[in-house]
Amino acid sequence: MRVSQKLEYACRAMAQLAKRADGQTITRLDEIAQREDVSANFLVQILNDLRRADLVISKRGKLGGYLLGRKAEEISLYDIVNAVDPSVLGSSATTDGESGELIRQAWDNVGNTLNNALKNITLDTLLSQGNNTMFYI
C-alpha cells in the first residue's frame, strides 16, 4: 500500500501530540517538526487540515502550539486519513463492461476492510504498541 507523504506526516504529528495528551500541554510546531524530521512549512498545512477536522486545537501567540482535539483513544487512523487524504478511502473502479460490477464489488470489499482496520487503530493503541517494542543487540 502506498501512503502519501502528507498522510505519513499527519500520523507522525498526531503521534507526537498524543504522547503529550494531558489536555493542557501545548506542543510547538517547531518541536513536532524537529522530533519527526519534517518541514515546518509543510507540517503547518497538515496541522491546519487536522484542525479543520477538529482533531487538533491550535493556540496562537508566543506560547502557542497544538494539542489533540479529543482523547487519544477517540482518534483513529481513519479520522486522520479522512482529514488529510480522503482519496485513500474511496474507490475509483467503474462498473463498465461485463466484469465491471464484480470487480467493483471486490474493490469495495477491500475498501470496507481497510476502513474497518483504520477505525480500529487509535492513537492510544499505536502508542501502546510502541511501548512493547523489543530491541535485540
TrEMBL record:
Annotated SUPFAM superfamilies: Winged helix' DNA-binding domain (SSF46785)
UniProt key word DNA-binding: yes
Cross-referenced InterPro entries: Tscrpt_reg_Rrf2, WH-like_DNA-bd_sf, WH_DNA-bd_sf
MF GO annotations: DNA binding; DNA-binding transcription factor activity
Any one annotated GO CC term: cytosol
Highest rank taxon of the organism: Bacteria
Keyword terms of this UniProt record: DNA-binding
Record Gene3D superfamilies: Winged helix-like DNA-binding domain superfamily/Winged helix DNA-binding domain (1.10.10.10)
Keyword Zinc (UniProt): no
Record protein name field: Transcriptional regulator, BadM/Rrf2 family
Lineage of the species this protein comes from: Bacteria, Pseudomonadati, Verrucomicrobiota, Verrucomicrobiia, Verrucomicrobiales
